[in-house]
Amino acid sequence: MAEITSGRTRRMLSVGRLTTAVGGSYLWQAIKRPFQSVSRTEQTLLDAHIRNAERVVARSKELRGAFMKLVQMLSMRSDLFPPEALEVLSVVQSSVPAMPYARVQEVLRAELGAPPEERFRDFEPTAFAAASLGQVHRAVLPSGETVAVKIQYPGVAATVKQDVRNVRALLRALTALARDVMRQDVDPREVVAELEARLREELDYLHEADNLERFRRLLADDPEVMIPRVHRDLTTTRVLTMEYLEGYPINDILAPGVDQVLKDWLAVKLFRLLWRQVLEFGVLHTDPHPGNYLVTHHPRLGILDFGSVRVFEPPILAGYRQLAHALLAGDDAEIGAACMALGLVRAGDDPAPLVRVMHVICEPLERDAPFDPRAYDLLQRGAEVTQMAVEHRLFRTPGHQVFLLRALVGLDAYLKALGTVRNWHRLFREVTAAATSATSRRR
Length: 443
Description:
With 443 residues, the protein is of the alpha+beta class. Helices cover 59% and strands 9% of the residues. It is built from 18 helices and 11 strands. It starts with 7 loop residues before the first helix and ends with a helix.
């Protein structure tokens, strides 16, 4: 793997060129606007969004590391880009070439105090997975247990401070876009603070180890879910050693020809698991990447990566529970109150437009009948929601909602691919009731 582009000046100049290009393209659109029709102006602005999203994607591939991860997070911000541009940003994949084994040995020696040959009975020199921040190797402990060893790329953590500055500079250009096109003000400080907090969590493998152990406790009563066990004696801030889980990649289950009974089991499992996290635990696994899931023939669902986890503060958890009950009851006043409690509506604003948006977004949860997820066109509905949001200046995207939307979009994609038709309303009602009961027991 080529070294991650490093050096404060080099990275600053690289993103500086990107910011200049993005900002300049919008300035050119502003200059041309008086000479264009309204429809032509909207089309040229959209073309500019797409070109600028492509510029961000290209530069993230050049800089990689923390900047690539920040762009992946930025691709969730529907308040900064229209849907067409988000589609371009979303192609920033987490797969990158692995670093050479010699560098792996250096990291392990520095973190574990000895080369891999001394800490493990066997250590495979070739990584079986590589992403934007690190890569994973299979190894065998002296006890004979097979483990997965996640190793952070050298230099990634050192670029975070500069890359956050770079993203802040880029956002200054993007917030002009948000004002011009999305007709709303975005506070770049709030956006950057959320991105930086999540990135620093993902770079701290001790924090991920805590997440693994927390989910093992939370899901200990579910024999159909597998969470890797952490080996603390071989885990540091930059190295995470955990139980190696056997299973089929989730993409294998999505393939044509796989037993529909298994597909249906997986669809219901993913649905119940996500809503249990939101409504019962208040702790959400927010990275639905296919590489993070395995399925066994038992069947059981394995979850592998816990770097991206969002903990909901008690008032936010209470707000989501209130929203769930209000949706099930069809109580618009209560839906509006929940949206206010969640910070989705500004104080003093009429919540009615956002209530209408909620009905569009939550149609599969509100319809008490068998529903085929493939019949729900997320892009079309997203365009409807964007139009309503722009018309009523509804855009307000607190951090907890950004990461929940990321998880929900992932769930929607899986349910469509699995083709499972169910009464999702009744399943949602069951999960909500179970979460309420579990919360009452804990009190």
